[in-house]
Design a protein that fits this description.
The chain is an alpha+beta fold. It has 20 helices and ten strands. The chain is globular, with a radius of gyration of 27 Å.
Length: about 450
């Protein structure tokens, strides 16, 4: 079956996948998990990813010494099906658009075992997933999903059915998930272990809270389990001939009219709520024009050949982060401030390089330098210090005196021609500040 869209990518349906793996039905899955090479690879991944400790306080640095002493016993428990995971540690992190996201941090030992499970299960499951599922899959990324959405819009599908699953990771039905797993996995020990991870519970203020549904975000295995749950939705959408892209629980379908979009929204919502026992967030879901919605931090222009641009909320969040990094009240030197800025800017630009809005990137670049000029003006404080510093930077004394004696605010002064000339692009380049625009141009050459 070739999915809709140009250049259909061949893929295996769930039925075909079952056929291709029947010869492996009696493969000892758990023996593959505890194999030395697999465990060493999992250990390296866990150590590289680092991360916070779980409820037992063990860090990734403590893991190897612990395994040297206890691995034979743990391996025996895994092989005979008696291993029991520990509860996860609940952590709340703020969402970019408000609210909080609940993470469950497993112990480093459980992260190791989950990683080992993932390395065995993923090669079996990933080839059978829809080619339009992009989240948490090897060799796939958000950029490809955004480009696919851009292609649909260019082909004339200029209405989007934006479906948001309400608290998806917290509401996954355990019975439905386990039934999906049992179709492919014959080893009861694997199924029992995954069930125990799902029901391990959460420690909240020292009290264990049982978990009857959901796959806590924070463990290596959760993303794969999420894709397994939503795989049925993917193939149902393909069976109906829809143009869609999905990244984790963000699913966008593209249609040619609002009426078609409303009809699709209603039918997909019924399928999700009745078949998968999940809930569609009515407040965040909508049928609208693609350029009025955001997808993975991006949106589009309304042109016949749509351009990818930064979503407005992304720009607001970016400026908020820059304000925190350039705040003078945190008692850091300009060198430290620039070092932290560079780390953030390089990572941010690495993701948002896909945007076709160089002018917006350039405006953000100039805004950052203005923030830093304001920091210097605040730092110099006294008029005579400002005059001396500006003169030392090559500004004529009469100009420097005007700035030093001005009653304008620091933010207003940071945009004056005199300060802009003294603390211009060359000055910040010498200080080591990374330029967003230059980084953008470099990265765009590789796209």
């Amino acid at each position: 079956m070739n999915p809709p869209g140009t250049g259909g990518v061949p893929s295996l349906s769930p039925a075909q996948a079952t056929e291709t793996t029947r010869e492996d039905e009696h493969t000892p899955w758990m023996e593959q998990v505890v194999k030395r090479a697999n465990m060493l690879n999992a250990l390296r991944r866990v150590e590289t990813n680092k991360g916070a400790p779980g409820i037992d306080g063990m860090t990734t640095k403590d893991l190897r010494p612990f395994l040297v002493e206890h691995w034979p016993q743990i391996k025996k428990q895994l092989l005979n099906g008696t291993y029991r995971p520990q509860p996860v540690r609940r952590v709340e992190i703020p969402k970019p658009d408000g609210g909080t996201r609940l993470l469950g941090i497993p112990t480093v030992l459980d992260r190791l075992i989950q990683q080992a499970l993932l390395q065995v299960l993923d090669p079996y499951y990933d080839p059978t997933f829809s080619p339009y599922s992009y989240g948490f899959r090897p060799g796939r990324r958000a950029h490809t999903a955004v480009k696919m959405a851009q292609q649909y819009i260019q082909e004339g599908y200029r209405w989007v059915v934006d479906i948001d699953l309400e608290k998806f990771f917290d509401k996954v039905n355990h019975d439905i998930l386990m039934s999906r797993l049992a179709r492919r996995i014959a080893d009861k020990r694997i199924l029992r272990l995954i069930r125990r991870y799902l029901q391990a519970g959460i420690m909240v203020n020292g009290v264990k809270v049982t978990s009857e549904k959901g796959t806590p975000q924070g463990g290596p295995l959760s993303p794969l389990l999420a894709n397994i749950v939503l795989d049925e939705l993917d193939w149902e959408l393909l069976r109906r001939g829809h143009r869609y892209v999905r990244y984790a629980d963000d699913c966008n379908l593209y249609v040619k009219s609002r009426r078609a979009g409303e009809r699709v929204m209603a039918s997909v919502q019924r399928f999700v709520e009745e078949r998968l026992k999940l809930k569609v967030n009515a407040q965040k879901s909508a049928v609208d024009r693609p350029w009025k919605r955001k997808f993975l931090g991006f949106t589009f222009t309304h042109h016949q050949e749509p351009k990818i641009r930064l979503a407005p909320k992304v720009i607001q969040r970016f400026k908020g982060n820059i304000r925190r990094l350039t705040c003078r009240s945190n008692g850091q030197s300009m060198e430290q401030r620039i070092k932290r800025l560079n780390t953030y800017l390089v990572g941010w630009m690495g993701y948002f390089q896909l945007a076709d809005t160089r002018s917006k990137i350039q405006a953000l670049d100039e805004w950052i330098r203005r923030r830093l000029r304001m920091c210097y003006l605040k730092q110099w404080k006294k008029p005579k210090t400002k005059k001396r510093r500006l003169t030392a930077l090559g500004i004529p004394q009469d100009w420097a005196a005007l700035i030093a004696g001005s009653r304008k605010g620091y933010w207003r002064l940071a945009k004056t021609p005199q300060v802009n000339k003294a603390l211009g692009l060359a000055f910040w380049r010498d200080k080591g500040l990374k330029s967003l625009t230059e980084r953008y141009d470099q990265l765009r050459c590789t796209l």
